[in-house]
Amino acid sequence: RICDRLEKEVGSEDSSKWIDLDRKFHSGIVKASGNERFIKDFRHIIMEDHFALYLMPEIEGKRDRFSKRIIRNERRVLRDHRALIRAIEKRDVRRAVRITRKELTFSLDV
After folding, report:
1. How many Å apart are CA 49 and CA 54, to the nearest integer?
2. pTM of this structure
3. Is the dihedral of CA 101, 107, 108, 110 positive or negative?
């Protein structure tokens, strides 16, 4: 499972694996929706995300400076991912929406 692989990467010096696995997690959920518009929009978001995380030079090399905060955030994201999977498996739409909104709000604040 992706969440188990993400857990192994919490706090890793190389954040690229975490970022890749996180994208795979979200891509899997988006694809499972079967909503072509959502899938297309998600691809555009991923391209912007790639630009922000990989191509902006001021982002590079800052992992050490923010490592405690990053590790705390990665653990929180992982908990939310697992909770979202459980909600989807139980077909608990309200809980899945609540978790997703929480994660989106958190992402905007980071």
Report:
1. 8
2. 0.74
3. positive
What is the chain's alpha carbon radius of gyration, rounded to the nearest angstrom?
Answer: 14
pLDDT tens for each residue of the chain, 110 residues long: 899 999 998 888 777 788 888 889 989 999 999 999 999 988 888 777 655 554 444 455 555 555 777 788 889 889 999 999 999 999 999 999 999 888 877 654 55
d(CA 18, CA 13): 10
Q: What is the 3-state secondary structure (H, E, C) of the chain?
A: CHHHHHHHHCCCCCHHHHHHHHHHHHHHHHHHHCCHHHHHHHHHHHHHHHHHHHHCHHHCCCCCCCHHHHHHHHHHHHHHHHHHHHHHHCCCHHHHHHHHHHHHHHHHHC
Tokens of 3: 């969440």
